[in-house]
Structures are given as structure tokens and as C-alpha cells.
Amino acid sequence: ILMVDEKGKNMKCLTFFLMLPETVKNRSKKSSKKGNSSSSSSSKLPPVCYEIITLKTKKKKKMAADIFPRKKPTNSNTTAVQQYHQQNLNNNNTIPAPNWQGLYPTIRERNAVMFNNDLMADVHFVVGPPGGTQRLPGHKYVLAVGSSVFHAMFYGELAEDKDEIRIPDVEPAAFLAMLKYIYCDEIDLAADTVLATLYAAKKYIVPHLARACVNFLETSLSAKNACVLLSQSCLFEEPDLTQRCWEVIDAQAELALKSEGFCDIDFQTLESILRRETLNAKEIVVFEAALNWAEVECQRQELTATIENKRKVLGKALYLIRIPTMALDDFANGAAQSGILTLNETNDIFLWYTAAKKPELQFVSKPRKGLVPQRCHRFQSCAYRSNQWRYRGRCDSIQFAVDKRVFIAGFGLYGSSCGSAEYSAKIELKRQGVILGQNLSKYFSDGSSNTFPVWFEYPVQIEPDTFYTASVILDGNELSYFGQEGMTEVQCGKVTVQFQCSSDSTNGTGVQGGQIPELIFYA
Known about the structure:
By secondary structure, this protein is an alpha+beta fold. It has 18 helices and 17 strands.
């Protein structure tokens, strides 16, 4: 046996001669017949050589994982290891190699080989609803170490000795993701299965996997899925995720209400959204979203999507829509002609708009508070000169980053320094060259050094610790105010904003001076 050190250098060469018991016994009989010649005959036997080597080191003891870091196996082992990993992805494959343990230097890797493997499996799970089940192998000891529920199931006082356990309420892909975490200490999440995985982690009390699922959902949270995740977060009792969902829904309410996911929420979640005081949306958008939800709900209940059935599935939630707070044009051209309101309700709401003595209504008549935008001003002073600031189709741009998620609603811009003037502004927000939001609008400046807001159509979600590029191209009076004494870091409430120069800026705007003095955002 050739012993080598960690650097691959030879240390000792040992030779072992192994003798089977029967051979020793036979030779002992032969030697006993010779009597006095036993000593001479025994000297002819092959010597049994052994040596115990103790390797001394002054370093601290290391675990196997430290001594053998996870590397790709080389030479002949590579194919075998890759083959076994592929078998784990498939179902119920037994490892054929007699010495597969030797391919993996750490207990963690050897334990991972057992994932989704029939080898030594002492329990099987039939996972999934009828018609979509999958039979998965398991090992009671490993499962019990990873989950208190499995421990109670297999080793508790009420444990049942079953070879097969049916789990109809968990999706096979989610159950496999949980098993992979328990066996391999690896978290493998996907957008289409993360909710089902969270359910499995909650059911079997695997808290670290559940936390990873929540973090995944928070990272991928957007206006498109916020309503669905709000419904699920309440079901799973995840208050942090619930709060994140409300932040997105409040700030990007119109996008959230127009998303397909809004129609998939349950009735309780619908009511909570319609009650929301800080919903930042026009009431006509809220009304149309509720009707869209009602139409889909009729399909879920196998009802014809008639006006009567839509009103039936909405129930008392209809009166949570603040119809009297709509603009009169929105009501007259939208809600009043939708057919969802009774004739008396329509007449009373019209009287509410026009009559001095207003009738009593079942609808909430108090406008929503919405959100109050915050402004981050990056200059300490402003000025104007006869030869600055000029606009000839050139771009003013600045880069910024925040330490908390915010929603950029627009920019504050300087106006004319030569009296009242109107500007046409094309504003744009990019991340790594990708346009996240843009809008073309006009604003009127009164000749003062104040800033004037220009809004995006919808607020744009900004993730923390990433630089974004804010740009504007102005067309109007060539001479305007501009900022001076710019700051590289600004504390705005609980949000810290950092600024740096942008290569897109071709009109002179930078950190120290120029245009785009304000970021307008919700936080």
C-alpha cells in the first residue's frame, strides 16, 4: 500500500501478506508432525508484516470536509460520480458499484448519494394528488434527523410501522426539493414550485428551508405576483412577506390590480385589498379589477359570467369600492354603464356628485389616503448663468443606488431662469442598459428656482445595492437653473441614496452639478 501526503509525495510503502485461517491451520498441522523441526519449518512461512504510522502535526484537527474540499473527481472517478448524480435525479436507481463510498470523501457527500435512492430505503412515499402521484424512496434515520415531524412519524410514541406513506397534499417536485435539502444540505428552488416547497417545509417543520423560500419570494416579488403572494403569505403566516407584498401593492397598485395574478386571489384577500387605505390607484382601476376578479370567480364556481352572478360572487365586497370618490367622467362612462349597479344606486351616486343634500350611500365615500411621495434632493444650492444651462437634445444623466427597496415615481427638474416657460421632458430609468420605465410629458416652470415634478406612468421598483441610471432629455427654453454643491450620499428618511456620474450624460450633469436635482419615490 503506497501512503502519500497531501501534496502527493511518497511517505511510506507497506507490504502486507495475508494468510487465510484454513491455510494457517493446515500449516500448523504439518509443522506439529515434524516435532523438533517446527522452528525451522515455521521460518519458511511468509512473514506477516505490519506497521502502524502516526502522522504528527502541530496544526489543529480538521474535519473531513476541510481536508477534502468539494472538487470535481478526476480521471476514472469522474464518470462514475457523474453517473450517480444523474441517477439521483431519476427515481429509484440503486448504486451498482460495490465501493461507491470510496468516491466521496465527506459524510455530507456520501449522505447525499442516498437522496431519492432505493438503496437501503426503509420507507416509500406516494406523493401528489390522485392521477399525478410519484413514488419516492426515503431513509427514516436521515428524515428524522432533518425534521421533527418525520421523527415523530417514525420514532415517536405513536409511530406506525408503514412501508408506504401517502401524501396527497404535496406536489412531488416540492417534496423532492425538501428531501434534497434534508439529504444534501442544498436548497434548489424554482419560481414555479417555490410556493409548494414552502408549504412542504411548513408542514414538516423544516424552518431553514422555509426561510429560504420566503427570501426567494421576497427577491422575486413584483407587481405581477404581489397579490398572489399576499394571499399565500397570509395562509403560511409569514408577516415579513406579507408586509413586503403590501409595500409593492400600495406603491404599484394599478399594475398589481391589472395583473393576471389578481384574479387568482381568494375572497378574503380581495376584501383586504379593497379596504386598503393606502392603495395608490384611481378608483376606476379598482372597480375594473374587481369586475375582472368576479368574472374569473364565476368560472371557478362554474357559473355563467352574467351581471347578476358577478354581483353575487362579489357580495358585500362591492361596497368596499369607493365609487363616489371617482372622477365624475370615470363614473359616468364606466361604473354607471357597467350594469353592476342597481338603478337606485346609480341615481343616488349621481345625486351625491351634484346635489347639495347628498343621499346616504352604502358605498364608502371617503377618498383613500394613498401614499405620500418622498423627495431626495441632491444639491445644496442652485444658480443660473447667461451661458448655462442649455438644452439642445442632449442627455442629462446621473446614477444612483439605495440601501432599501423603493419605488421611483418620477424626477424633480429645474425650470427656466428667464421667466415662465414650458418644457417637454423625456425621462428614463435604466438598470445595466435595460429600460425599466420611461415617459414623455410636459411641465410648466414659473421662472423660480423651484423643482417641478415629472412622473412615470407607473412607479418603478428599485432594488437595494444596485446602481440605476436616471436620464432626461429636455426641450424648451435653453437657459435654466442648475444645481451646485452636489452630494455623493443623501439620507432621506430611512433610505440612504448614493450618487455617481453616468457615462450617458452628454450635457454636463454629474454628481457636483447639473439637472435632475430630485428623485421622487415611495418607500
